[in-house]
Amino acid sequence: MVIRPRSAALAPFVRSLAYDDGPELPPRRERILPGGGVSLMVNLHEDEFRTYHGPGHATVRRVAGAMLAGPRAEHTVIDTAEQRRIVTVSFTPAGAAPFFAVPLAETRDQLVELGDLWGREGAVLRERLLTAATTATAAAATATLRLVETVLLDHLAGP
To answer: Are 40 and 88 in contact (CB under 8 A)?
Structure first.
């Protein structure tokens, strides 16, 4: 995992930027506990995120590979097999608000596709990051996170 320092402009809003390119994990379901945190996530391994719901977690919900995970009042069940190459922006408490026009309360217990929030730019962010991360090296991870930082600065609406 590479965690890149943030620009001073992002410091009040972003706790960390991370690029996780770990080994392939065996497929299994894992419970993510409720919490107030909001994260922007991009799956560079496959173009989707899956969560499991209902009795026996048999109902699968899929969203595109670039999404915003809102605060959670309920646990979420994920499949660890898709957690191979992930870029994550972890926002500070209330730090995501200046980047998105939608009230964050509307994202509670939701995974919202970035294209629904940022339009075309959100829809193509994953492809832009894949271009930056052409190899699994520290330099590629740094270039990827630098691009994420630039995109965030472009979407920063101010206080």
So the answer is: yes
